[in-house]
Amino acid sequence: MFENILLGIGPLLSVNMLIAIAGGVTGGVLIGVLPGLTSTMGIALLIPITFSMPPEVGLAMLGGIYLASTYSGAISGILLNIPGTPAAVATLLDGYPMTQKGQSTKALALATFGSCIGGLISVVALLFIAPPLAEFSLRFGSPEYFLLAVFGITVIASLSGEDVEKGLIAGIFGLLLSTVGNHPLTGFMRFTYDIPALFDGIPLVVSLIGLYSIPEVIDMLTRRKSGEKIKLNLDESNPLRFFPEVISQKVNLIRSSLIGIAVGIIPGVGCSVGGFLSYDAAKRSSKKPEEFGKGSTAGVLASETANNAVTGGTLIPLLTLGVPGNPVTAVLLGGIMIHGLRPGAELFTTNADIVYSFILSLFISNLLFVPVGLFMAKYCVRLIQIPRSILAPAIMAMAVIGSYAIRGSMEDVWIMLFIGFCGFVMHFFAVPRAPMVLGLVLGTMAEGELSRSLSLIHGDVGAFLIQLVTRPISLVILILCILSLVQGIRQQIKKNSVYEN
Amino acid sequence: MTNVQKNRIFALGTLILSLYLGYESFSYPGNSSLFPRVLVVVMGFLGFLFFLRQTLLSKKIKPSPGNDGTGSCSVASEKSSADKTALASAGLVFGSIGIYALLVGLVNYEAATVIFMATMMPVLRFSKKRWIIVISCGLMALLWAIFFHLLGVTRPESLIFG
């Protein structure tokens, strides 16, 4: 493994790589600061830009956006009580009260250093947990990969919405969209309606742009308020002098990082849950729990450390098994796949230089958002005053050119609009979009592996079903699928009983 | 529209979509359409199950303020007005992007982008004319530089200005 790490350091030293990381981090900070712009949308819109870059450079840029946008949601949360991203919600509880007390710089410094340390620890975990897990995935055959795709969808469908059925329907719809075009083995055309642009299937990145930019723009316009003035309450102290205070809370930092990593590894749970769990743990173990909610430094540190530690955790199942932990990593998986890479053992052996340079670039991204966050945050947050009447058409223009750029085809713009329409309908009926993204991303793999399995046993569906329960690994994944569904149904029964009473 | 009503419409839509996609997929050869066939059957079943559950839920919920099945008048009217605004915004977004895409094919990318931005901003109630021109031209120049100059993407062809 250490040879591979050395292999990954080489590309990191190139100027292009460093520019890409810096660009990704700066872009990520801006995306995170602006409420309404999500990490998912940001990555989906910027994948076309990384498309023509070498894979390691493109992935480093996307990684920088992911980490920086997860962190920077805290900036507008601390200064304005508006979380830039859902990940920052727990940070508001103590971050904004600190700003009200005239300690905004201190709160920002705690959030920045905490995010950096949490992020760095999680990348170390990624570096040491992912390779053995990827090696383990060598034992997987077609039935296991097919079930992994099913597991990814069932777990996200069960956890990401109010109704399990809606999540599952969204996942299945995504899988169905992935069947448009050639059959992976026979080459027979399905659902193409003689439209040449559909012969190779629905382009993944185009779908991601439509699914995450169009509904967000509509939502932005629906909630638009004119003449909204934002008041900033800033103090001018030196942020670096709070570093010793951060380091003095070693237990809090380590505990929050471990919670974040564990939450990240479990698919479907997400950054905001990591932040809340860690906040709760810090409150329970604090000698001054009464300070929580009133501007506790331990509270800000706990939630921010954990939500950035989630990022490295989510990448572990993503890079080793191809199972994304949340919508952002589902989009990131799309970004990985358009560079011709496939998660799993092959990524850590044949493409070791790319994957290790990507992982190591995350160290640089984590370190780079410290100066950006500490010294630019107060200026970045003024961006929140950009009227939505400028932001919305700008996003639409980017969505159009981004969709066109993938294959140089205006037909892809229409496909993006169609998927955007599907996304809007889902948003309107409160159907989670994450399972659909997962369906789209994992659909080709699921159908390909199913077809390969069946072709090996002469199309005998009964024999295939027996394989699923007789092979030990596939049986474990099958049990996990059932457990995730049972968990979702149990949660729903609880909610329904509250409704009825 | 209440959440339960919305859910029932969604479930019905799912059922109709399953029937249509089922009809399509069962018309393809079996070895090339096993996966979509299984998917539409499961989706149809889930749609039916969801419709049934929502129908039972709507009968169970007592009509009292704050209960989601019916809700108080003010909550219901707020939801209905939010739905109307969302539909109007959606119409604006899809219509404007559609026209923009057609304009790109008709005039050219640069002119279409400036026209799109310069029209959309006032429509969304941004009224500073000088800023509208600066932002429209600035964004067009930025996107042009990134995609066509830096990334080497071929410009879309157009009828009038090529």
TrEMBL record, chain A:
Protein name, as recorded: Putative tricarboxylic transport membrane protein
Top-level taxon: Bacteria
Keyword Transmembrane helix: yes
Keywords: Membrane, Transmembrane, Transmembrane helix
Family annotation (PANTHER family): TRICARBOXYLIC TRANSPORT PROTEIN
Transmembrane segments: 12-33, 108-133, 145-161, 168-189, 195-214, 258-279, 354-377, 389-407, 413-430, 464-486
Species of provenance: Desulforhopalus singaporensis
Pfam (any one): TctA
Domain DUF112: 18-438
Automatic annotation (TrEMBL), chain B:
Listed InterPro entries: DUF1468
Domain DUF1468: 9-154
Pfam families noted in UniProt: TctB
Statement: the UniProt record of this protein carries the keyword Membrane: yes
Keyword Transmembrane among UniProt keywords: yes
Keyword annotations of the record: Membrane, Transmembrane, Transmembrane helix
Chain ranges passing through the membrane: 9-28, 34-52, 131-151
Domain of life: Bacteria
Protein name as annotated: Tripartite tricarboxylate transporter TctB family protein
